[in-house]
Design brief:
alpha+beta, two-stranded antiparallel ribbon, 5 helices
């Protein structure tokens, strides 16, 4: 899982919820983001800058009091964990790739995440030669 931690800033996407499906959408989002007990995320209202001016948004931020919070693991340990981790919604590597690809699809290029994605892919390939080529040619 990737979380927003304190300090700094980032470029991201502001997603709007259709008022007709607001309750259902927020219920699903809450279940996905707040399913671990105690929660590793803390929902917070934050102010975000948009082309139309500042807006209020809900962000799920890192909970430093959670026993699951690990802080800065360093690049090697981060790559090791992401290349091996898998949960009920998929692998850490897949989540990272889909995040990077989705951001790129919206014109957002994060050099840190792209580099991390490349390192994770290389770590998987070194453990399972040919795995990435096979995954690229197979349908989900």
């Amino acid at each position: 899982m990737m979380q927003i931690d304190r300090g700094g800033q980032c470029t991201g996407l502001l997603q709007f919820i259709d008022p007709a499906t607001e309750r259902t959408t927020l219920d699903l989002l809450w279940r996905r983001e707040m399913s671990i007990k105690p929660p590793s995320n803390l929902p917070r209202w934050i102010e975000v800058e948009t082309a139309e001016g500042p807006r209020q948004a809900i962000a799920f931020t890192a909970n430093h009091d959670s026993p699951f919070y690990v802080g800065d693991l360093g690049p090697q340990e981060t790559v090791r964990r992401l290349s091996r981790a898998c949960g009920h919604l998929g692998s850490g590597a897949q989540y990272l790739y889909e995040t990077v690809a989705a951001l790129a699809g919206h014109g957002i290029e994060d050099p840190y995440l792209w580099n991390l994605q490349d390192l994770v892919a290389r770590a998987i390939e070194s453990r399972f030669p040919g795995a990435l080529a096979e995954a690229a040619t197979s349908a989900y």
